[in-house]
Amino acid sequence: MPNLSSDLTPIINKRLNNLSASKIRAFDQKVSSIPGIIKLTIGEPDLNTPDHIKNAAIRDIQANDSHYAPQAGKPELLDAISNYLERKIGIHYDPTSEICATVGATGALNDVFMALLNPGDKILVPTPVWALYFQLIKLTGAIPIQIDTKKDNFILTPQHLRHVLDGRGKGAKAIILTNPSNPTGRVYPAEILKELAEVIKEYQIYSVTDEIYAELVYDTVKHHSLSEYIPDRNILISGVSKAYAMTGWRLGYIAGPKEIMQSICKINAFLVTAVTDNVQMAAVEALNNGHDDPKEAKKIYELRLQFMKTGLEKVGFEMATPQGAFYIFAKIPEQYGTDDEQFAFELAQKAQVGVTPGRYFGKGGEGYVRLSYASSNEQMQEALKRIINFVKNL
Ligand code: PMP
């Protein structure tokens, strides 16, 4: 047998060779090997998929609905997505031409980037941000232009966007906005979105919004989409992963203007043919009849958020108030140093709590750590106790 472990660099796609391996994953692996560790590094709900959703898939399997689905998605699913978006943001997307089902929101991001971006194109990425965007953008040969939003409490302002479009982002084709945000939990107010939409129109760029956490917004905050203001320029990405505790099912979707969606759906069909048949029927059930599921989950997350936020602030962590998703992005108190990587490593080794260094989320994340509160209540309580003891003893 030939030795395949020899250096494969020359035959691997050059763009792939230029990508650094996910630091988040590498850090997570290192931390996972520490005995007794409580990991607050994970971006997925600890809750289970509700039974009525599981049963919809089981019924579909038993009915032998196990063939290739239509490439853009089953009509039942496309209708369910269309109705859902109309209920939530008041925009009608035609199920037959303006929506496409994908393998998770991740698959949707891939489809959209591949359909829009040529090598050398610029795309604006407000940071800190979920770092996978950088890798997927670079795979197309395009250039992510980071916009550090720290000074504005992690919200991109219209003035800042304009400034970048007049400067180093000149000629950019698009911007991607995560709302609510991973890692900061920040949610864009309607007035800011409206003004951002004006700038996007004026500069004739396109926007892509990742709204995978749209159902998880807390307190009196309401989720809005850029699609409400520029439906002809925005490509909306979402899915069922986070709202219905369905990360493993892998179902997302894209909605946008017909002309662009044609190309995006074509890419999706090239890459995956169609999303898994019975998974689509589970998503139909979630979107049509799962209205209360995210509400139940939100009650649990919101209590955890308050508990964690209060505890961390007592020992000097600062944060722009998280309003959605299930993350806290906290500034490490200065007396404990500004090196987030070192802080996170020491916290893992000495106190057995895993948090993610902020710098892994791009510019503006240095000196911060991300904590996910999608772990069980018991784990959260124990983790907070350990963090408090750790910083008190530093
Ligand atoms: N977008 C953001 C902002 C995320 O945080 C995640 C998951 N970490 C995803 C997309 C991926 O969603 P999915 O599991 O549906 O691919």
Topology at a glance:
Blueprint: H1 14-17, H2 23-32, E1 38-39, H3 51-62, H4 75-89, E2 99-102, H5 104-116, E3 122-127, H6 132-139, E4 143-148, H7 158-166, E5 174-178, H8 190-202, E6 206-210, E7 234-239, E8 252-255, H9 258-272, H10 277-289, H11 292-314, E9 327-331, H12 340-351, E10 353-354, E11 356-357, E12 368-372, H13 377-392
This protein binds 4'-deoxy-4'-aminopyridoxal-5'-phosphate (PMP).
The site of 4'-deoxy-4'-aminopyridoxal-5'-phosphate has 13 residues, from helix 5.
Polypeptide structure, described:
It is a single chain. The protein is an alpha/beta fold. It folds into two domains: 14-49 and 293-392, Aspartate Aminotransferase, domain 1 (Alpha-Beta Complex); 66-289, Aspartate Aminotransferase, domain 2 (3-Layer(aba) Sandwich). 41% of the residues lie in helices and 13% in strands. It has 13 helices and twelve strands. The strands form three sheets. The chain has a seven-stranded mixed sheet with strand order 2-8-7-6-5-3-4, sandwiched between helices. The protein has a three-stranded antiparallel sheet with strand order 9-12-11. Strand 5 (174-178), helix 8 and strand 6 form a beta-alpha-beta unit. Helix 4 packs parallel to helix 10 and helix 5 crosses helix 9 (258-272). The longest helix is centred in the C-terminal third of the chain and has 23 residues, at 292-314. It is globular. The chain starts with 13 loop residues before the first helix and ends with a helix. The model has no long low-confidence stretch (mean pLDDT 94). The structure holds 4'-deoxy-4'-aminopyridoxal-5'-phosphate. 4'-deoxy-4'-aminopyridoxal-5'-phosphate binds next to helix 5. Its EC number is 2.6.1.-. Pfam families: Aminotran_1_2 (PF00155). This is Aminotransferase.
